[in-house]
Amino acid sequence: MIIIRHATENDIQQMLDIYNEIITNTTAVFQYDLHTLEMRKDWFAQKQKENFPVFVAEENNMVVGFSTFGQFRNWQAYKYSIENSVYVKADCRGKGIGKLLLQPLINAAKEMKLHTIIAGIVADNEASIALHKQFGFVEVAYFKEVGFKFDKWLDLTFMQLML
After folding, report:
1. Bridge partners, 141 (sequence order)
2. Which residues face 121 on adjacent strands?
3. What is the pTM of this model?
4. Are 97 and 64 spatial neighbours (Cβ–Cβ below 8 Å)?
C-alpha cells in the first residue's frame, strides 16, 4: 500500500536518489550535474522556511516518489503563483503514484489561498502531460528548443491550473 505523507529530514537521501536518477536518465529535469546531499538538505530547509509542502509517497518503508511546489518566479507580484514538481522512482513509474502526489499539492495550494499552479513539462513527456490534464491543467504555452540535453533540443510545455 502506498502512503502519502509530509516529507521529513529522514527522507532527504531517498528523495535525492530519485532526483539524481531523473537528472541522469531523463529530460524531466533540465539539469546536468547531480545534486549532493548538502544541496538537497538546503533545498528541504528552504521549502520549510517558505512554508511550501513536500510530500512523499511511501511503499514498504521506502520513498517511491515526492512532490512539492515553489515560487513560479522570484518577484513579489508572483507571490500567488507557484510551479509544481512531481518525481517518481524509475521502477515505480506508471503505477499512479504521480496522481497520488499531485492532489495533495493542489489541496495545499488552495489552503494557502494561492491563485494558480504552473507546470513546466518537457513537451515529449506524454505521461506527465496526461497526468496534469486529469487534474484540469491546460496548456498555456509551448516553447521550442529551450533546453539541450542528451545531444538534442528540448521543447517545453507550460500547463496551468487556476485555483
Report:
1. 158
2. 157
3. 0.96
4. yes
* Amino acid, res. 38: E
Q: How far is CA 140 from CA 74, 80, 106, 117, 120, in A?
A: 20, 17, 18, 12, 10
Confidence of residue 35 (pLDDT cuts 50, 70, 90): very high
User: What would you measure as the largest C-alpha separation in the chain, in angstroms?
Assistant: 42
Backbone angles phi, psi at 13, to 5 degrees: -60, -45
User: What's the order of all strands across the beta sheet hosting 2-6?
Assistant: 2-6, 54-59, 62-71, 81-88, 116-122, 152-162, 138-149
pLDDT one-digit tens code per residue, 54-92 = 999 999 999 999 999 999 999 999 999 999 999 999 999
CB 125 within 8 A of CB 27: yes
How many whole angstroms from its chain centre is CA 45?
17
